[in-house]
Sequence to fold (259 residues):
Amino acid sequence: MVFNISYSEKEIEFVRKRILLGDVPRFLYKYRDVSSAIQFLKDQSIYFSNFKEFNDPFESSANYIVDFTPQQYYDFFISTGFNIISAKEVARQIASGKIDGKDVLRNATEEALSSIGYFCMTARPDNLLMWAHYADCHRGVCLKFDILEDLDSFLVPVPIEYNSEYIDFDTLNSNIVELIRRKSCDWAYEQEYRIIKPDMHGLMKVNRRALKEIIFGCRIKENEKETIMKEGILNGFLDLEYSEAKMKCHSYGLSISKI
Fold:
């Protein structure tokens, strides 16, 4: 299983150029309730979750390919850090039937997935379902981030691909990112991008300059708008822009305008 999510300065610069060319979104959004938005203004931290915390039970599901020869198992164990003696012994026990190689690979895949932290974002600030599901039924906000302001935190946005069937996943030779980026087509409305970090769970502080705008939901209370704007000033977000989403009059949709 190939698992490499570290980036050189050259690769970071390449991503920067792709963002400037429009190949990778520069601005991504996070729908939040009011209390979560206020908390971000106070501590400037984003939360990287474990995939087991997701609300989709099909997360990282695939047709796992797990039938391999003892030599292929041996090569795999060596690549994952086993010493030669241990790798040979495990491969020998798999060949003799004392250990089920399929279970070994399933456990290794589970361990790799569990080690990754996810921060999920979207390309759209005006999605009706996203407002309903993740921003307290339109009573919350949508945060607009400029990822160029903090590539260390937001590199690299991985676009989710949506499918009606599981992909085939070679547990020895495929990059685990290909597994992470797949979801059911029922979720396609989210237009999701994932920031993935190895061995990162919990809160990560980001550059405050990355937050460019707060969009208020069409049902948010006026006093909560005022509270959020005051917190922005108190916590040093002096150039932060504010907008509000309003229901369109003649169609199902939202219009977003500056305050």
Notes: Residues 9-55+118-166+182-258 form one domain. The mean pLDDT is 88.
